[in-house]
Design goal:
single chain; 217 residues; mainly beta; two-stranded antiparallel ribbon; 6% helix; elongated
Length: 217
């Protein structure tokens, strides 16, 4: 039972979320161009920016052997060769889609199938890459009449087109089994960030740009 004692599969040690809104100081009754009216105020006034930034530390994952060395219904975890845990920094490897946590050489150097009746190393001994995402939007309000107001929005999700890599056990191209040819691969984020899930249900996590108009009355 001692090998089962570990952090939960969804453990993220640190989570940071922030949201902000900034009204640009231009246009009627603002510090700059405060006396602007008519067409000039429609151009420079009523603008604001808002953004969302999220950053999470990595989730833990387990290296499995791909063999049922412990019993006939359970794939055991891999055995650690030696007493040193290999580094999980992202690395490039020829023939792999995206970076890997362990190269083929490291797989042979650090991991092996456990002996008969053994279950290998402890669970969740490794952590994958962290995650961060930044969304940015600009909006402009037009006061058409006393009753009607028009809002224009330009929004970007994953503004910097930053790739998010997963644990091998969760990656769309990757595996946590040492017998799998895709062992250690981390590509790519298979589920879209929360801020884009309603925009792109396919789960693509690349940059998304959208424009919108909203009439309020």
């Amino acid at each position: 039972w001692r090998n089962e004692r570990a952090v939960s599969d969804f453990d993220r040690r640190h989570v940071f979320n922030s949201a902000w809104l900034y009204e640009l100081p231009f246009g009627k009754n603002k510090p700059f161009l405060g006396s602007a009216g008519g067409a000039m105020n429609h151009i420079v006034g009523g603008w604001s920016l808002n953004g969302i930034f999220s950053a999470y530390t990595s989730e833990p994952w387990t290296v499995t052997s791909g063999s049922r060395t412990n019993n006939a219904s359970h794939v055991s975890r891999a055995a650690l060769v030696g007493n040193t845990l290999p580094s999980t920094e992202l690395k490039e490897q020829a023939g792999s889609v995206g970076p890997v946590l362990f190269t083929r050489e490291q797989r042979l150097q650090y991991f092996a199938a456990p002996g008969p009746g053994e279950n290998g190393m402890g669970r969740n001994m490794f952590r994958g890459p962290g995650y961060w995402n930044f969304d940015l939007a600009a909006q402009k309000n037009f006061q058409l009449t006393e009753r009607f107001r028009l809002q224009f929005r330009a929004e970007t999700f994953n503004t910097f087109n930053h790739p998010s890599f997963q644990n091998p056990s969760s990656a769309s191209s990757g595996s946590n089994q040492i017998t799998n040819a895709r062992f250690g691969e981390t590509c790519c984020e298979a589920v879209a960030p929360n801020t884009t899930s309603n925009i792109i249900q396919t789960g693509e996590s690349g940059r998304v740009v959208q424009f919108g108009l909203k009439l309020s009355f």
